[in-house]
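We modelled the chain as a single entity of 321 amino acids. Its sequence is:
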Amino acid sequence: MIKNKKSIFFGVVPLVVLALSVFLFFVVFVGSSYIFKMIFKSSGDSYTRDFEGFVDDINRLGLGVSPPDLIKLKKKSAIIGFSKGADIYECIDCYSSKIQHINVLKPQKQECENNACVCLCIENFQFAEYEGDPIKYGFCPKFECKELEQNIIEEASIPGGGYWKNGFLFANDVSEANGLRDFNPQIDPLIVEKRQNIVGICSRDMLEYRAGLGFDSCIITAYDLAKKLEEQNKPDEAIEKYSDFIANHESGREVENSLFRIGNIYMEQNKYQLAENIFLKLVNEHPNTHHKTKSIENLNELGVSVPEISEEDDVETETTA
């Protein structure tokens, strides 16, 4: 009997040891693998959370310029903005080599449908080049996107004479990605500016370049260029830029300023019929403009009869835009 008990005991022990070994294997290897995956997932989530916070901050930003802000980007990842109504982000004349332009298609995401949006390519962002094609094309296996409440400026000039069209792009550890020097998210902050219904995002390189052109802002619109051209005594070129701005904006103080400045330039050039057309357009299409009093005075000077202004409409008029 005792011998049989010993046999049973020595037969059970190896089974217990085997079971414990299997259990420890799952705890050590499978468990550690799970923990690794959780850590990796948390790391990925931190980039996503930082991206979402960045876009939320843009949407919350009032008119003006944000403080410089660093954004977390993994290597081979990118953050790309797409303007409303655009199907593609472009970097035009970004390089003088055989590859001159960069294109990235707007993702088919609900957040980007009929909206401006910002998208994160969290990994494996890369470009494809084709023989004889001056364009290289950006690809990402998976985008995460968020809607922007304001539109992204349609064009943004960059050093070297090129410009971004319908968005922006910053990529980590991807060479020649956007016409600027290679971006390092650990030391290169991004600056956001919001003016009326448009948003501009730029780097310090871009701000330094703009300062050299006589501008101190991230956003440079056709309106800004027109004012600069007037200062440089280039009235015809100024009219062209003011007209470009009006064509792309339905209303707003700068639209009214643009019309008023065009009218004044025509008056100075003795092009009275053109001036009359512009001032009539200003007072008829923008009846509450702060230029109404002076515009009607100019029309009266041109021999055009305009109804008297009521006290409610007689607002202070700027003589310069």
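As a brief sanity check on the tokenised model: Confidence is low (pLDDT under 50) at residues 25-43, 310-320. Residues 63 and 196 are 7 Å apart (CA to CA).
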